[in-house]
Amino acid sequence: VTPELMIKACTFYTGRLLKNHFYTWRERTIPPINGVDPLVEKMETAAKYDNFRLQRCAFHHWHSHVKAQKEQQKNTLLRIQQMFQCYKLMIILNKWREKAIYKNKKRENELMLKHELQLRKWRSKLKLRVSAKEEMICPKQDISEVFLVGEIPAFDISQLPKRAILQIFSYLGLRDTILCGQVNRSWLSMTQMNSLWTGIDFSTVKNTVTDKYVVSTLQRWRLNVLRLNFRGCVLRMKTLRSVSLCRNLQELNVSDCPTLTDESMRFISESCPGVLYLNLSNTAITNRTMRLLPRYFHNLQNLSLAYCRKFTDKGLRYLNLGNGCHKLIYLDLSGCTQITDSAMEILSAKCHYLHILDISGCILLTDKILEDIQMGCKQLRILKMQYCRLISKEAAKKMSSIVQQQEYSAADPPLWFGYDFEGKPLTAERDTIQLKDSELTLKESAYSSEEEV
């Protein structure tokens, strides 16, 4: 290759390179006259996309707002419909009630007129019979004997209004009601009214009633019984378990029942959670029963544990477990010699609705309990603390300004309490010693009076 050709090739190659780079630079720097700038296109697409996102966000908010408004309108319409239906039902019920009251009054008036007519007829017949017999009787015979001899026409008590029959039979006891049911069928139907068996008092027939009759009665009227009284009844454990059949029971009195045990109370408490009044005084219950009370009787208002000496402070603390018996209004702990200040402190901290408290004969309680009661039981109205020797007169006087009614005595417990001032049970020897001491004091007073004379 000659140097000339080499120079020629180099110039051609450099010129070609310059031409290519110049064209590319010109295309980059000088925009085409008839074409569109790509940056402008990109800006336009970016603006469109941004506007689309803004519109989408605004539409989403608007859609959610409209949806909420529609749901609100739907709910308001439903409420208006419900109110309209309730108002309509109230109008219908009021009209029905007015018609029912009118019909009942009309029926009662008709029955009263019927009874008055029957009484008038009966009086007229009685007068006729008396007048007819006066002519035939001797002059020595008294007129009162004529009334006794004359036959009284039958008067059916079942024709009376139901309210009057219930009022009449409500004054009868259980034994008299059973005897009335044995007269005839109409009297039996009258004694089988549901309202008569809402409260059954077995304590009036505790010496004659049998376990079989108690079980059959509770099985028959289990849905109607609201009040049961077994005070002093000696019943078997199986019979006491039958109380659990009464699911709607509200008042239960098993005081002075020697056969009541923790096991029978377990069956009763598991099946009758609606009890409001419970009387367990003078029974042999222990801490097991005290543990069951707050577990099942959440609405218990009146509780009597008088002379129940087999439960301890631990059992009394159980009343505050869980929901507990925090709705107590009346609490009777009289004669419970085992109770101390620590248990009463915890109890008073939770029983804020307590109105009546009886701690008579609780010989271990001191002035501290009054401070705890004053802090916890602010609604207390009546406080009884007879024969509490460790409670001072100053503390009792201070407490009397807070409660409305108070009974306080620092004397020794009487003999019928069954224990002395230390809580020890009285024996026959102690009773005789106390009687001898009282006789000696009487003699000394007599001697001193004679010497003075």
Automatic annotation (TrEMBL):
Q: What GO biological process terms does the UniProt entry carry, in alphabetical order?
A: SCF-dependent proteasomal ubiquitin-dependent protein catabolic process
Gene3D superfamilies cross-referenced by the UniProt entry: Ribonuclease Inhibitor
InterPro entries listed in its UniProt record: F-box_dom (IPR001810), FBXL15_LRR (IPR057207), Leu-rich_rpt_Cys-con_subtyp (IPR006553), LRR_dom_sf (IPR032675)
Cite the entry's keywords alphabetically.
Answer: Leucine-rich repeat, Ubl conjugation pathway
Claim: Membrane is one of the keywords in the record: no
Name the Pfam families on file.
Answer: DUF7885, F-box-like
* Residue ranges constituting the F-box domain according to the UniProt record: 154-200
Q: Repressor: present as a keyword of the record?
A: no
Cellular component annotations (GO), alphabetically ordered: SCF ubiquitin ligase complex
Q: Which PANTHER family match?
A: PARTNER OF PAIRED, ISOFORM B-RELATED (PTHR13318)
What is the protein's name according to its record? Answer: F-box and leucine rich repeat protein 13
Q: From what organism does this protein derive? A: Catagonus wagneri (Chacoan peccary)
Its gene is FBXL13
